[in-house]
Specification:
Blueprint (H helix, E strand, L loop, with lengths): L9 H14 L2 H17 L1 H4 L3 E3 L11 H9 L3 E7 L7 E5 L6 E3 L5 E3 L6 E2 L6 E4 L3 E2 L5 E2 L5 H5 L13 E5 L20 E3 L4 E3 L4
Parallel strand pairs: 1-2, 1-7, 7-10, 10-11
Antiparallel strand pairs: 2-3, 3-6, 4-5, 8-9, 11-12
Length: about 200
């Protein structure tokens, strides 16, 4: 596996992995997403959570939709990230069900139509299905570079005994790296699910 030796390589690695994702056919992406759903849907980290944040795939990201369908069938409550003007570039989350109306936010990403009564803070979630560009055995995550997830869940780095929500990265197996250079503000993942398995950080 390629090693990412320093922060200067984060941008190059991000571009490389994004090219690999885009090169996949729709059929290949669908097969991987369904295999991931089979693994992750049975994992205790997922099965024992009730309030779960997901995302809508873009730019070749691992598609969580098959897993989301499985979670709805189990009676889980799902949420999608939303941007709000008062959040200081942090995410909030809104409950989402199939068929709910979506709007395009300022980054061109679909999100639920804003409703004050359905919005919750990151700390109210049990589990967050997290998009990523690359990950390593210690749960370090390379994202798209905007820092929204790290800012939104920065409070987890201050906790010593009670960590909630848990963060579960969703990725293709080829996104796994030996090591990713980290920054002080990075928030590590608790586990990563791919089309091959669910890797808990201590077992990666």
């Amino acid at each position: 596996m390629p090693v990412n030796p320093g922060k200067a390589d984060r941008s190059a690695l991000r571009q490389q992995i994004r090219r690999q994702r885009r090169a996949m056919t729709g059929a290949e992406q669908d097969v991987c997403a369904r295999r991931l759903a089979q693994h992750a849907g049975k994992d205790p980290l997922v099965f024992n959570s009730q309030h779960i944040a997901a995302y809508l795939a873009a730019d070749g990201e691992m598609d969580p939709w098959p897993l989301m369908e499985r979670l709805w069938s189990l009676g889980k409550t799902l949420y999608l990230p939303i941007l709000v003007t008062f959040s200081d570039q942090r995410l909030w989350f809104s409950a989402y069900n199939p068929g709910d109306r979506l709007i395009v936010n300022r980054f061109g990403i679909l999100e639920p139509e804003r409703s004050h009564y359905r919005r919750i803070s990151p700390a109210a979630l049990d589990l967050v299905l997290t998009p990523l560009v690359a990950f390593d055995p210690k749960g370090h995550r390379l994202g798209m570079g905007g820092g929204y997830y790290d800012r939104s869940f920065a409070f987890l780095n201050k906790r010593r005994h009670w960590r909630k929500p848990r963060l579960l990265g969703l990725a293709y197996e080829f996104q796994r790296q030996d090591r990713i250079a980290t920054a002080a503000w990075d928030v590590p993942l608790d586990a990563v699910a791919t089309e091959k398995s669910v890797y808990h950080c201590q077992s990666l």
